[in-house]
Amino acid sequence: MQRRGGPMGGAFLTEEEKANQPKVTKELLVRVFSFLKPYWRQLILVMICILAASVFTLLPSILTGKIIDEGLIGKNLRALVIYIVLSLLVTLAANLIGVGQSWLNTWIAQHITFDIRNGLFRHLQRMSQRFFTSNSQGDIITRMTSDVDGVQRVISDTFANILSNAITLVVAIVAMYRKNWILATLGLLVVPLFALPTRKVGKTRWTLTREAQECNDEVNGILNETMSVSGQLLVKLFGKERYEYNRYKDVSRRMIRLNIRENMAGRWFRVALSTFASIGPMLLYLVGGILLMQKDSTLTVGDITVLVSLLGRMYMPVNQLLNVQVDWVRSMAMFTRIFEYFDMPIEIKDAPNAVEPQQAHGNVTFENVSFSYESSRQILKDISFTLESGHSVAIVGPSGSGKSTIINLIPRLYDVEEGRVLFDGIDVRNLKLDFLRRNIGVVSQETYLFNGTVRDNLLYAKPDATEEELINVCKKANIYDFILQQEDGFETVVGNRGLKLSGGEKQRLSIARVLLKDPALLIFDEATSALDSISESKIQEAIDPIIESRTSILIAHRLSTILAADEILVVEDGRIVERGQHQELLEKNGVYRLLYETQFGKERTVQEMI
Ligand code: ATP
Predict the structure, then answer these.
(1) Choice from 401, 529, 558, 598 to test ligand 1 binding pocket (greatest atom count within 8 A of CB)
(2) CATH number at residue 246
(3) CA–CA dist 114, 108 (Å, integer)
C-alpha cells in the first residue's frame, strides 16, 4: 500500500487524500474522544497552560505601550524600570508555562497512544490466521507504527497548536479593539492581504514540487531500464539508442522548466510575504498618525506601537489556522484506519458456553468436514476420519491436496464450513481455545525460532521447565549432542529466525520444544524440503519413537514415517481417496501406489541398496 502523508506531510491535501477523505460522523468523533476521556483532568490542565502561555506571550507587546507612553514619553524612570522588569518576568513565565505544557502534552499523547497501541496489539493477536495471510505484514506494521505515531503527533502538536493559535488570535483581537477600534478593524482587514497570497504561493510551490518529484521518478525509471545489463542489450539489439536518448532528453527538459518555476515561486513567495507583511504596520502607522494628530485624540504613540506589534503576532497563527482543515482530514483518516482494525471481527474465539475438560486424551474425529479459504474454491470436501488416543495417522497426498489445511482445523486456526471436528468427542468450537491449543503440539514445515538462545526457544513452550527436562527432551529429539558440541551449549544464539542453524537442526529443536510442551495430540508436518540423509535419519530416529508412544497426526513425505503410522489417509484434491495400511494400499494400485513409486520410490531404492 502506498504510504500516506502524516500530519506534517505538506500543507495541502493530495488528490488521493481528497478522494479518500473519511466521513466525519458523530460516532467517529465520540470514539476519538473516548480515547481522550481517561485523561480529561490533564487535558483541562493543558488548556489552562495554553491559555496562560498565550496571554503571557502577548503581554510584553501590550506592556511596550506603557514603556513608551509612561516610561519614555512621560520620562518616568521608575515606571520604565517596573514595566521592563514586568515584561521580562512575563516572558520568562510564558516560557516556563510552555515547558510545563509541552511535558504534559507529551505525557497525555504518549499515554493515549500507549492505550491505542496495546489495544490494537491485543486485538490483532486474537485475529485468525486468515487475517494474517490476507493482509500484508507491511500494512499491519504501518498501522501499528506510523499511524499510531501520527495520532500521537496529532494529540501532542496539532491539537495544542490549534488551541494556542486560536487563543492567541482571540486575545490579540480583543487587546487591539480595547486600544482602538478603528485601527483594530484596519489591522484585521489587512490580515487576508498577507494570508491569502502566502497560501496561494505555498500551494503553487507545493504542486510544482510534486510535479518535479514525479518527473524525477520518471528519469530514474528510464535510467533503471536502460542502464541495466539486460535493458542495454535490448536497446542495442533493437537499435533504440536514439529513441531512448530522446526520451531521456525530453524528461530532463521538463525537469529544468519545473525546477526554475519552483525556485522562482519561492522567490515570489518571499517578495510577497515581506511586502504584505510590511503593508499592515505601515497602514497602521499612517492611519494611527492621522488619528493621533487630531485635537481631542486619546490615542498615544504607545497604543499605535502596541497595535503594530499585536498585528505582527497574528501572522503565524492565521497562517497555521488556515491549514487546520488539512491537519484535521489527515488526523481523522489516521483514526479511521486504526479503528478499521479495531472493528475487524474476531473470527475465532471462545463460544459463550465453551467448556474446558479436566484432562485431554488427544482423540480426533473429522465428521464430513468441508472447508474453503475463499468462497470461490473449496479446498476440503467431506473429510471424515477418526484418530484414537495412543494411535497415529499419516496423511499423504500430492502437493496442494489439502494436507496442511486438514491439520489447521484441529487447533482452530480456521473453522470448518461444514461438518465438525471433534477433540475428545467435543466439537472444537465448543472447547476453550486455550485448552485446545494447550493440548495440541504442532511441528510445522516452516520451523519458526525466535532470535534468542536455544534455551529461550525451548522455554517458550514451558517457561518453568527444569534443566533435567530440557536435557531429556533434547535427547529424545536427537539434538542434545549438537547442543553439547556448541561452545555455549543451551546459551547458543540461534540467529534471526534460527538462520544460524541448519534445516535439520531447526526441525529437531522444534521437536524438542513441542515435547517440552507435552501435548495430548502431536501434529507433525514433515518438511518437504530435501535434507541430507544424515539429517533425515536423525529426525527419523527422533520421531519414530514419538509416533509409537503418542497420539499423533503426521503429514508424511517419507516412507519410514508412513510405515510408523497405524493408518494412512491418502488425500487428493481435498478428498480422502484411499485409506488403510501400507500393504493393502499398495495392492489397490491407486493414488498411493503412484505416490509410492514417484515420491517414496527414491527412498525405497536407497533403502534397498543399503
Ligand atoms: P504441501 O504438501 O505442498 O504442503 P498441502 O497438501 O499441505 O501441500 P495445503 O497447504 O493444505 O496443501 O493447501 C491446499 C490448497 O489450499 C492449495 O491449493 C493452496 O493454494 C490453498 N491454500 C493454502 N493456504 C491458503 C490460504 N491461506 N488462503 C488461500 N488458499 C490457501
Answers:
(1) 401
(2) 1.20.1560.10
(3) 10
d(CA 283, CA 285): 5
Which residue owns the Cα nearest ligand 1 atom 23? 405
Q: Which tens digits make up the pLDDT trace of 393-451? A: 999 998 889 999 999 999 999 999 999 999 999 999 999 999 999 999 988 877 788 88
Q: Do 245 and 124 lie in a common domain?
A: no
Given 298, 333, 354, the domain boundary residue is 298
Span 509-520, pLDDT tens digits: 888 998 888 899
Q: Do 290 and 217 share a domain, yes or no?
A: yes
**Domain annotation covers residue 124:** yes
Rounded Cα distance between 476 and 465, Å, is 15
| Beta strands at 392-396 and 551-555: parallel, antiparallel or unpaired | parallel
Distance of CA 107 to the CA centre of its chain: 22
Q: How far is the CA of 402 from the centre of ligand 1 (A)?
A: 6
Give the per-residue pLDDT at 314: 86
> What is the Cα–Cα distance from 72 to 64, expressed in whole angstroms?
10
Predicted TM-score of the model (pTM): 0.74
Does 404 lie in the same domain as 275? no
Under the banding of pLDDT at 50, 70 and 90, the label for residue 134 is confident
SS (H, E, C) 166-214: HHHHHHHHHHHHHHCHHHHHHHHHHHHHHHHHHHHHHHHHHHHHHHHHH
Contacts of 299 (CB under 8 A, 6+ apart): 180, 183, 288, 291, 292
At 239 the three-state DSSP class reads coil
pLDDT of 114 higher than 60? yes
Asked if residue 351 belongs to a domain, the reply is: no
Pocket test for ligand 1, best of 133, 347, 373, 414 (most atoms within 8 A of CB): 373
Tell me the pLDDT band of 528, cut-offs 50, 70 and 90: low
Q: Whose CA is nearest to atom 25 of ligand 1?
A: 373
**Number of folded domains that form the chain:** 3
Q: Are residues 278 and 418 in the same domain?
A: no
Same domain assignment for residues 64 and 144: yes
392-396 and 440-443 beta bridge pairing: unpaired
Ligand 1 atom at minimum distance from 405 CA: 11
193 and 169 share one domain:
no
Nearest Cα to Cα of residue 149 among 4, 345, 17, 23: 4
Q: Could you tell me the residue range of the domain that residue 143 belongs to? A: 24-179+323-346
Alpha carbon 478 to chain centroid, angstroms = 40
C-alpha span between 226 and 177 (Å, rounded): 67
Same domain? For 131 and 185 the reply is no
Joined grid coordinates for residue 287: 492611519
Q: By CB neighbour count within 10 A (0-12 exposed, 13-18 middle, 19+ buried), where does 136 fall?
A: exposed
Closest alpha carbon to 319 in 200, 409, 481, 438: 200
One domain for residues 154 and 211: no
> What CATH number has the domain bearing residue 367?
3.40.50.300
Residue 591, pLDDT score: 87
Distance 591 CA to ligand 1 centre (A): 19
Asked whether residue 5 is domain-assigned, the answer is no
